[in-house]
Design goal:
The chain has 408 residues and is an alpha+beta fold. It has helices at 15-34, 39-43, 53-72, 83-87, 111-131, 134-167, 233-241, 253-262, 299-308, 316-324, and strands spanning 191-194, 197-201, 217-221, 224-227, 270-273, 276-281, 284-287, 336-342, 368-372, 388-390, 399-400, 404-405. The model has no long low-confidence stretch (mean pLDDT 95).
């Protein structure tokens, strides 16, 4: 993308022009990320938690068709009567849907048919923008911004999901042979000290945010020290050499059971070749760089590493206070960082009304919060109050960690 989608507010032109430019910017980025994938690449679903790239491209298109055109464009007829069933995800209020784990079975419609679907909906949305008056468009801005950010989330998932699929190949391909891993920053004092205090947590501005980031509220934070730097591969190799994966005293019970069941001996996408560790990346297999931030670790692994280090994982409130002060290196752009906070509603939380109320609130159980963003996160999609969330065994995402210390 040439500019963050959020910049549409300050761009010149009429409201319809600005929204159209923002819409096409996000739509073009989805296609750019899919451009190097073959039709076969776009069909593969390597596990139930992942989705085919073709499905991602179609699902975000269905989102615009369902919630913008279907609800607000008079006379619009869906492109295909079966696509709502095939490409709905978890919006129960919007109707029945194809099973998530079965998405890789959909050989039809093919990638070219999905491209035609996207072009049809893109044209219909731009026509709607050109015909609607400013009052109508202004009333729809909150929905449109959800749509922009929803598609950006799927852009990130497209990369994490195709990387997982490519990692299963015994002759592993590269998504982008020229891809290079961003180097973490190692600077300043090792620890940032947060003295005890009451801080505002959550989104309080008028800019875009998801409903799970509100309401802003006061929380007691500290005393605690947060690591300025991300945990590196070199530190993780020492954890592995010390028997970290085989020491049950370091692990939560469910975590050790998962490690044994899945035969974890290293982070996700790592493999030993001729006695040397390699990691599968978007650029293909590469030697593990000790200086790079460790990636593709589950909450269980992150928690075990913290315990082995004699430290802890931070809470999401501690992370937010430190990030707001600008005191964390690489808070954004390399790996999402696990916190030890459960994904639960903020005090006074209310989901938005309608089917879009299913977006976040119904997942607020049994998951952990991650903060920051990753190397796969689209430009303009990050903010300090963003709350990502995954189950504790998940590690196919670009997930890492930084440490917290309470011994002060």
């Amino acid at each position: 993308m040439t500019a963050p989608v959020a910049s549409w507010v300050s761009e010149p032109g009429s409201l319809a022009q600005r929204l159209g430019q923002a819409f096409m910017a996000v739509r073009d980025e989805t296609e750019r990320r899919a451009a190097s994938l073959s039709a076969e690449d776009q069909l593969v679903q390597s596990m139930p938690d992942a989705s085919p790239a073709k499905w991602h491209r179609a699902h975000v298109t269905w989102f615009w068709e369902q919630f913008l055109l279907g609800d607000h464009a008079p006379g619009y007829t869906p492109y295909h009567p079966d696509y709502a069933y095939l490409f709905n995800s978890y919006y129960v209020s919007a109707g029945p849907r194809h099973g998530r784990a079965q998405r890789g079975h959909l050989t039809r419609p093919g990638a070219d048919a999905v491209t035609a679907y996207r072009r049809h909906v893109d044209a219909a949305v731009l026509e709607f923008f050109s015909e609607a008056d400013d009052a109508k468009l202004a009333s729809l801005v909150p929905l449109l911004e959800v749509g922009f950010n929803h598609e950006q989330q799927h852009q990130e998932l497209m990369l994490t999901d195709i990387l997982h699929a490519f990692a299963q190949n015994p002759i592993p391909p590269a998504y982008d042979p020229s891809w290079t891993c961003p180097k973490p920053t190692i600077s300043g004092e090792r620890w940032l000290t947060l003295t005890e205090g009451i801080h505002t947590i959550g989104h309080s501005a008028d800019s875009f945010h998801f409903d799970n980031e509100k309401p802003a509220h006061r929380a007691l934070v500290g005393p605690v020290r947060l690591a300025r730097n991300l945990v590196t591969n070199g530190e993780w190799l020492r954890f592995m050499a010390a028997g970290g994966y085989s020491s049950p005293t370091l692990w939560l019970m469910d975590g050790f059971a998962a490690a044994e069941r899945e035969e974890w001996q290293a982070p996700g996408h790592w493999r030993q070749v001729d006695g040397e560790w390699q990691v599968m990346t978007l650029g293909g297999p590469r030697p593990v760089d000790p200086a790079a931030a460790v990636c593709h670790v589950s909450y269980y692994e992150a928690d075990a590493f913290a315990r082995w280090s004699g430290q802890h994982l931070p809470t999401e409130m501690e992370w937010e206070v430190a990030a707001r002060a600008g005191a964390l290196n690489d808070a954004f752009g390399i790996v999402w960082q696990w916190t030890r906070s459960s994904y639960s509603p903020y005090p006074g939380y209310r989901a938005i009304e309608g089917a879009l109320g299913e977006y976040n609130g119904k997942f607020m159980v049994n998951q952990l919060v991650l903060r920051g963003s990753s190397l796969a996160t689209p430009e303009g999609h990050s903010r300090i109050t963003y709350r990502n969330f995954f189950y504790p065994h998940h590690r196919w995402q670009f997930t890492g960690l930084r440490l917290a210390d309470y011994g002060i």
